[in-house]
Amino acid sequence: MDGLLFLSILTEPVCAVISFIISYYAYKGYRISSASKLFLLHLGFLLLGVSLLLRFITFGFLIALRISEPLFQALRSKVLLGGIVFSSLQLIAYVLFSVSYTSKAESFQENGKNLAILPGIYIIFFNPLLELISLTILGYVLARALILFIYKTEGNSLLVLLGFTCFFISHLFFLFATLGEALVFLGQMIQLLGYIFFLIMLTRVARSV
Amino acid sequence: MTAPKEYRSKARIYFDILNQIAEEGGRAGPTRILYGANLSHDRLTKHLAQLINLGLIVEEKEEDRVFYSLTEKGMAFIQEFRRIQAFAKAFGIPI
Question: Which A positions 28-57 lie with beta carbon below 8 A of chain B?
Fold first, then answer.
């Protein structure tokens, strides 16, 4: 399997774990403060994490099946549906953010002919229309994060702004995923960078007292 | 014209009371807390009783005076609340 695609897939569980950590922290905040917006944030990151993990597991399952071209054609509609489900979960997560704002490595040496179609399957997970909607909602979230940073000029707000900026740029790459897997790879790497910004913010918060 | 009153959640009021006691060195009388946490006497009495029940503060009597001291649980609550506040602030969420 192509190295770029392999790396792209590997970033998904990492991003999912970071997403779950942020979700847990937001939930803890909600339990203490009863602030409903923190609950929405918790739900949003939970859905993002589930979406990333599901895509990773589904794709891993398809690899495990040693999927062939005829089988892929038979499963195509189901894979397409899966892609819509994952993207929809992300969309719901972004809507929640907008409201809340005031792979496992296997041996790919054998069956190389069958595995040649894997990039095609992976790219199907990125539905252009849903990516476009994601971009629109994230654009709104980004604008709110920017306004917040301008008013507060605080380090943690900047990290959140950078995180959402990376999400926005990654979806821009995913929108054109059909043009080549290199774009998916770039998108995944930028998405990972976004999660790292969120993780840095969490670390700063945890050390702030 | 006066500015509209800012809504404070129960947790926020608890934090303001505990934080006021912490600022007084971990032990404070009701008058100090009352002014620091910006509460009426009735509401303060009610909240102090709840904080005692939760084990966040203890009441100490010295002659005819009453003091309230932070417990370890109370200190831990203040620290956790500050972290949550910083986290929420980064997303522009007021708590």
Answer: 28-29, 32-35, 37-38, 41
Q: Where does B10-89 sit in CATH, by number?
A: 1.10.10.10
CB pair distance less than 8 Å for A34 and B92:
no
A58 touches chain B (CB under 8 A): no
**Domain positions in chain A:** 3-208
**Domain ranges across chain B:** 10-89
CB-based contact B16:B31 (threshold 8 Å) = no
Q: Which residues of A touch B14 (CB under 8 A)?
A: none
pLDDT for position A103: 37
On whether any CB of chain A is under 8 Å from the CB of B76, the answer is no
User: Which one of A32, A201, A209 has the shortest CB-CB distance to B90?
Assistant: A201
Residue B4 pLDDT > 70? no
CB contact at 8 A, A191 and B65: no
Task: Tell me how far CA of residue A195 lies from CA of A12, A49, A162, B29, in angstroms.
Answer: 11, 11, 10, 46
For residue A110, what pLDDT is reported?
Answer: 44
Contacts of A209 in chain B (CB under 8 A): 79, 82-83
Residue A33: which of B9, B90, B92 has the nearest Cβ?
B9
pLDDT tens, position by position, A32-88: 888 889 999 999 999 999 988 988 888 777 777 666 666 666 666 777 777 778 888
Are the beta carbons of A52 and A19 closer than 8 angstroms?
yes
pLDDT tens profile A164-205:
999 999 999 888 877 777 888 888 899 999 999 999 999 999
